[in-house]
Design goal:
The structure holds 2 protein chains of 2 kinds. By secondary structure, chain A is an alpha/beta fold. Chain A is built from 10 helices and 12 strands. Chain B has 8 helices and 19 strands. In chain B, a hairpin with a 2-residue loop joins strand 1 and strand 2. The chains are: A alpha/beta, B alpha/beta. The complex binds adenosine-5'-triphosphate (ATP) and magnesium ion (MG).
Chain lengths: 250, 442
């Protein structure tokens, strides 16, 4: 589904991604771990199309389509969804209105008519239940005054509403209490199908007990320097990153 | 003596043609006695205007708004009508059911207006109202106490306008939609004068739109409106500036409120008219008065929109609430100047003012100045002002969810304007204004 080859990206002439390769197949969950500042969020942002990042080399294909050619909105319409590490507050834009606009623009892109008001509301109710997202929050301004955990949960609520092909979760678990973590993870598990895939960026092995990954990768200094199965996450939890850094830097 | 000579020469040098033309015409008309009962008032006003002349940027009130290039151009003082124009239709507000009043080049058009008999409502060309009691009582009673030279000029030499009286206890079923059409085939300097009187316990909604005929030449209109809101009366008043680029406006609105009255002004400007200066002065002349001033200016091109407001708390226990939002695109300029006076007598005043600006055009400009002068000691006053740009983080967030850039911008502009648009008493007008905001974005 997602194929990243030799991806190089920089911000303000500072190289951050330095030849990153990643293959994600439909139905898979990939976890990406790595020290602070190694480039994990940069990867998510580059995939979502943030313009501050300049791709200097490499390619990214989503089901054979060149993702880097597309505007952020077209990437989303093709099925890329980035759950932000730091979701933005937008006062004056209602959560529900925003979701309706997004959903209908994605549908229009696929040649589908807008959802009927009733269908839309049913879907909202269903997905709210799935991630146990408070109806009161759904009706407020987008993320305005939400707690850190509520913002993260709203990201997953949006993901559930938009049903993307590829969900990239950037530290969605940070800031969640244990119950919320379980709820969010459950939600993601129920959204998993044969046809979609998830890239889960996290610092904690704990999340991966709930969302069990098929692969775990370590991103360090702009590259994936080690890949393995979920046991790799346990090993990292125990030993930290130094042993990996040493072998890479050597 | 020396000063006077100096001032005089400066005026003649800088804006000779229009200035001398105006003085001459007004003088001739006065000596021929054509305006009858108003002669004395007009004569005095002409003297005041002569003493002041056209303001320059040295005048604090006109610092960012240079009218010299405008008044230095030649104009005719009589319009050359464009035949068959249906420009008033540009002011149509979808789904609005209203009494329609169309003013073409400042002249009341009975043909284009709905012109129906409505109990308790008097609408007529202002020159037909000169003999009415309430005209004598309120005409020039307040506006001419200000030092705006354009008011003096207007008093001295206005040629047409509108008189509206909503009778005591009358609650109008429909809004009055006044459409000002600039439609002169020659460059035209127009001077219109309006007087609206809201009788005690009367309730009404007045919506004023400004439009331009596509075939119109450039014009400068000096528009003065005096509004009297009597005891317990309520007036909702909308300005919708959607005129064409060739039209330029100097609008002065002077409102005087009596006890327990409510006046709400919603002042909206959109891309088009090259130059718009609004002076909106609200005098809270008795206790228990409430006034709200809301404004949105969405500017584009090299447009200038300047809103100067005065909220004058004269008596105790009144409340005023003012919120203006400016969104500037391209190389346009928006000016906001909000004066609040709380006089010695005005204890227990509650006054709020907020001005937020979003600069979209890198070369656009905003000048904003709150001015609070508080002489009473037991008052609650707050004011604030922000200047910002388009929030790129928010824009990216919306786009990352599949929303097009254009639509995302619209959502963000609606969000920015929400504090103001959500206060509109008339939902149909609110929707129309939101639509104009979408259209006005580039
Ligand atoms: N917009 C930007 N401008 C300047 N520097 C940036 C920008 N975005 C990222 N960087 C830099 O790029 C590097 C990688 O940042 P990134 O956010 O991708 O790290 P991360 O792996 O997500 O870290 P964390 O675990 O702390 O979230 C950091 O050194 C960061 O300071
Ligand atoms: Mg990060």
């Amino acid at each position: 589904m997602l194929s990243i080859r030799n991806l190089h990206a920089s911000v303000e002439d500072k190289a951050i991604l330095k030849g990153l390769d990643l293959e994600v197949k439909a139905g898979e969950v990939h976890a990406i771990m790595g020290p602070n500042g190694s480039g994990k969020s940069t990867l998510g942002n580059v995939l979502a199309g943030r313009e501050d990042y300049e791709v200097t080399e490499g390619e990214v294909l989503l089901d054979g389509k060149d993702l880097l050619e597309l505007s952020p909105e077209d990437r989303a319409r093709e099925g890329v969804f980035l759950a932000f590490q730091y979701p933005v507050e937008i006062p004056g834009v209602s959560n529900i209105n925003f979701l309706k606009t997004a959903l209908n623009e994605i549908r229009a892109y696929k040649g589908l008519p807008p959802l009927e008001a009733r269908e839309f509301l049913n879907r909202v109710k269903e997905k709210q239940k799935l991630v146990e997202f408070d109806a009161k929050l759904a009706n407020r301004s987008l993320n305005e005054g939400f707690s850190g955990g509520e913002k993260k949960r709203n990201e997953i609520f949006q993901l559930a509403m938009l049903e993307p092909k590829l969900g990239i979760l950037d530290e969605t678990d940070s800031g969640l209490d244990i119950d919320a973590l379980r709820i969010v993870a459950n939600g993601v598990n129920q959204l998993r199908t044969e046809n979609n895939a998830f890239v889960v960026i996290t610092h904690y092995q704990r999340l991966l007990e709930y969302i069990v990954p098929d692969f775990v990768h370590v991103l360090y200094n702009g590259r994936i320097v080690r890949s393995g199965t979920k046991e790799l996450a346990l090993e990292l939890e125990e030993k930290g990153y130094d042993w990996i850094k040493e072998t890479v830097d050597a | 003596m020396l000063d006077e000579v100096a001032a005089d020469t400066m005026i003649t040098q800088t804006s000779d043609s229009l200035y001398t033309q105006l003085i001459k015409t007004a003088g001739e008309r006065l000596s021929s006695g054509t305006t009858g009962s108003l002669d004395e008032i007009r004569k005095q006003a002409l003297e005041r205007f002569k003493a002041a002349g056209f303001p320059t940027v040295k005048n604090e009130d006109w610092k960012y708004t240079n009218i010299q290039p405008l008044v230095n151009q030649p104009y005719a003082l009589e319009a050359e009508p464009i035949s068959g124009g249906a420009a008033w239709e540009k002011a149509r507000i979808p789904d609005l059911d209203a009494y329609r009043v169309v003013m073409v080049n400042g002249q009341y058009s009975s043909e284009l207006s709905s012109d129906e008999e409505i109990p308790g409502l008097q609408i007529m060309p202002i020159e037909q109202a000169f003999e009415r009691l309430c005209f004598a009582k309120y005409f020039t009673a307040y506006a001419d106490k200000t030092d705006n030279p354009f008011v003096a000029l207007n008093t001295a030499s206005f040629t047409s306008g509108l008189f509206i009286e909503v009778g005591k206890n009358t609650q109008l079923q429909k809004p009055i939609h006044i459409i000002h059409v600039a439609a002169s085939a020659n460059p035209f300097f127009s001077q219109t004068r309006n007087l609206y009187v809201m009788g005690a316990f009367a309730e009404a909604e007045i919506i004023e739109s400004f439009v331009t005929d596509d075939a119109a030449e450039r014009s400068l209109s000096n528009h003065v409106t005096e509004i009297m809101v009597r005891e317990n009366a309520k007036l909702q008043h909308y300005y919708l500036q959607v005129a064409g680029e060739q039209s330029n406006y100097l609008n002065h609105t002077e409102i005087h409120q009596e006890k327990h009255s409510l006046y709400n002004n919603y002042n909206c400007s959109f891309p088009g008219a090259a130059f718009v200066r609004n002076n909106i002065n609200v005098r809270l002349g008795d206790s228990e008065v409430e006034s709200h001033l809301y404004g949105i200016a969405l500017t584009a091109g090299s447009q200038l929109v300047d809103n100067h407001t005065i909220v004058d708390h004269m008596k105790p226990n009144c409340e005023s609430y003012e919120w203006y939002k400016n969104i500037t695109q391209d190389t346009s300029t928006a000016v906001f100047n909000g004066k609040i006076f709380v006089r010695l007598d005005a204890q227990k005043t509650n006054a709020f003012q907020q001005n937020n600006n979003m600069l979209i055009g890198e070369k656009s400009a905003v000048y904003t100045k709150p001015q609070l002068e508080i002489f009473a000691d037991d008052v609650k006053c707050s004011h604030g002002c922000t200047i910002g740009q388009f929030d790129n983080e928010a824009l990216f967030y919306l786009r990352a969810r599949g929303i097009s850039e254009a639509q995302a911008r619209i959502l963000l502009i609606h969000a920015f304007a929400f504090d103001v648009t959500s206060r509109f008493a008339n939902d149909t007008v609110r929707q129309y204004v939101e639509h104009l905001a979408e259209e006005g974005l580039q």
